Amino acid sequence: MLPRYITAVAVAAQIAQCNPLEAHVGVKVKDFPRGFRTCVFYDDFSEGKDSLPDPAKWTIDLGTQYSPNGPAQWGTGEIQTYTDNHENIHITPHQTLKITPRRDKHGNWTSSRIETTAEWDFSCQKGERVRVEARIKLGGNPKNQSLGMWPAFWALGSEYRGNYWNWPAVGEIDILESVNGERKLWNVVHCGTNPGGVCNEPVGIGHVTEPFEKGVWHTLAWEAHRAFGKRQESMSWYLDGRRTWTLWKRDVGDEAAWEAMAGAGKMLLLNVAVGGGFPNGVAGITTPTKDTLDGEGASMEVDYVAVYKKERW
């Protein structure tokens, strides 16, 4: 079942967009991944060049926090200001989305972050299987000139909207995180209480895949498997069609935490942060540095984002 607040007309239009079509960079996009027959969200950023993402699907986050009552620096210590300026975010002539961090002459950083609107929240109930997928390319600046760069594609419990202090209990799924120009892909989940808890917060439970090449296109995906009966529930991450990590419900061992991560309503986010606790921790120093480059080589480009669902398996 789709969320009840999606209208029949919107659903029909959205499913139509999931039919086979030509990718904007020359690769055939399949209408459905193997085993899936329903598409509940799809965006291939086919708006006109130099435009912003479709406001019916995406909200552009602005500033340094959600609201004066929310966590400063987005709760992570990142130092950039998010904007909707063309130099930070736009649809390219190839009909891809590009997010680009910039540094001004005073050393101040800007970037962009978007999240799906509430209309397109999705969940994974008992007996369902959900797949979140995107095709993404990260900029190829040298590692020693990428300290502080923190691109991400992730899902966050939609109950975070309007509260902003219920993380990590709402659940977070990081499908792509890569920091400091490392040839590494981090997959991480956050849940429960902070600090500590079943997800070892604020670090979370994670897996690192390497090598993860920059400057080339990758297909990244996350699946939640919530079968009926005695089959064990799990979540799996995929890179270019290869499963890289599976987290089982028994590994978490907490019903509420698992439900928040695997089942509850979620929104999707795309952003490139600059600095913060994660890149600082990996680098062992405060980032970014004077040598960190902005621009094209620090960007994240997105071909499409999709959410697929299979019921009663």
UniProtKB/TrEMBL annotation:
CDD domains: GH16_Strep_laminarinase_like. GO terms for molecular function: hydrolase activity, hydrolyzing O-glycosyl compounds. One of its GO terms (biological process) is carbohydrate metabolic process. PROSITE patterns: GH16_2 (PS51762). Residues 14-313 form the GH16 domain. SUPFAM superfamilies: Concanavalin A-like lectins/glucanases. This is Carbohydrate binding family 6. It comes from Pochonia chlamydosporia 170. The lineage of its organism: Eukaryota, Fungi, Dikarya, Ascomycota, Pezizomycotina.
